Amino acid sequence: MDFLTNVTSIFQKHGIEFLKATVLTIELTIVSLFIACVIGLVFAFFKVSNIKILESIANGYIFVVRGMPLIVQLMFLYYGISSIFTLSDFAAGSIALGIHSGAYIAEIFRGSIQSIDKGQMEAGRSLGMTYFKTMRRIILPQSFKRAIPALANQFIIGLKDSSLVAYIAVSELFNHALSTQAYNYMPLETYFVVGIYYLILVLLFTLLFNKLESRLDVGRRKKRDKVEIAF
After folding, report:
1. Which of 33, 91, 146, 196 fits as disulfide partner to 87, beta carbons 3.0 to 4.6 Å?
2. Once rounded to an integer, what is the mean pLDDT over residues 86-96?
3. Number of domains into which the chain is organized
4. Where is the ABC transmembrane type-1 domain (predicted)?
5. Tell me, what CATH number does 13's domain have?
């Protein structure tokens, strides 16, 4: 009973602060994942290219990111970036998280690009399109659709990973939970509350990606229907 009373008290006293921290968490996640998608797409191109030096660079980057704990990478990148550029904690944290997630997204894009039949690239080139134009207009749209389930999973992981920037003084959701429990001496109840906020965010991200995936499926069904009608 005391547990529920304490949880209710935390919601009442710190609800507004938690909502503000949640907004910052969403912003941090969106910015870092945008950076990760750009990095991931670049390194995915490196991986599928026939240029050995580019493949080696991509393999090295992915190996290092996968082989080191995220908190170590975050600290290294944060202090490394801050020593070169004068950036806010939010910006430096976003870049560090983006570099980390970019390695995983690179593999997602690489797999989805390679899953497209090679004949489609050959068909595009035979029509006089350049390699990059064929990629942009034929290969990438299809590979993006195939990558959505894996991207959704990685985006949710990125959302949860954003909690680690609390240790570099970014006032996001988990950082606020650390401050709150130090003030109210109720760590169990405070972490329970912040867990609810994260569950709600994950639910919203899941619903958003499910909606996007279903819309793309509808689009594909409509295209198939048109082809069948045409015949």
Report:
1. 91
2. 85
3. 1
4. 22-209
5. 1.10.3720.10
